[in-house]
Write a structure and sequence with these properties.
The protein is mainly α. The chain contains six helices and no strands. The protein starts with 25 loop residues before the first helix and ends in an 11-residue tail after the last helix.
């Protein structure tokens, strides 16, 4: 019994390979690589054309999962000129409201409920899609509270402005809801997950 390498007899000798490995000629491997490279380049070109036709803009290098290997057929100048032509697509402004569910299901009475119970947190403005106005209201409130420790008359003025703004929101809520619906009119709510 031998505890040595497989294929080596006990008396020494050289190892015999268990199977013989057959290597393909180098020319066949290069031809196969060239064929795969050509198919890959054709696929990438068709995907870029499809994205451009769907309105996604030009191809961005940041979307590439891994860098492509340079093949023997591609020159460095062709790669650099193709990279120069690509431009990153501009960032789109966020138009979706922060929270509150689908726009079609939002109602004015529910906005008034948010005003009644969540006015201190500007919940009604977030619900109506006016997050910028909501953050402005919260800023006025917190600056007024902080000013109370430094100079109370300024805090009183700030709180008076904040409270007046909340009372004014009673009349502004229908307009905020109308503006939110107009901004999102014709949008497909299922595109959020696309």
């Amino acid at each position: 019994m031998s505890f040595g390498r497989k294929g080596v007899s006990q008396g020494g000798g050289s190892a015999r390979p268990a199977r013989r490995q057959i290597h393909a000629p180098a020319n066949a491997a290069n031809a196969q690589d060239a064929e795969i490279t050509a198919k890959r380049e054709a696929f990438i070109a068709s995907e870029r054309a499809r994205r451009a036709s769907e309105g996604f803009g030009e191809y961005s290098a940041s979307e590439e999962v891994r860098p492509a290997r340079k093949s023997a057929f591609a020159s460095a100048s062709a790669v650099s000129s193709a990279t120069e032509k690509r431009k990153p697509k501009p960032k789109q402004k966020r138009k979706k409201p922060m929270w509150g569910g689908p726009i079609e299901e939002r109602t004015i009475p529910r906005a008034y409920v948010f005003w009644w119970f969540g006015a201190i947190a500007s919940a009604h403005r977030f619900y109506c899609g006016d997050s910028k106005g909501a953050w402005n209201q919260l800023t006025v409130l917190f600056v007024s509270i902080l000013a109370a420790f430094v100079y109370p008359p300024v805090a009183q003025i700030g709180l008076f402005i904040w409270f007046g703004w909340l009372v004014l929101d009673l009349f502004l809520i229908p307009g905020l809801m109308r503006r939110m619906r107009d901004e999102h009119e014709g949008e497909d709510p299922t595109e959020v997950f696309a």
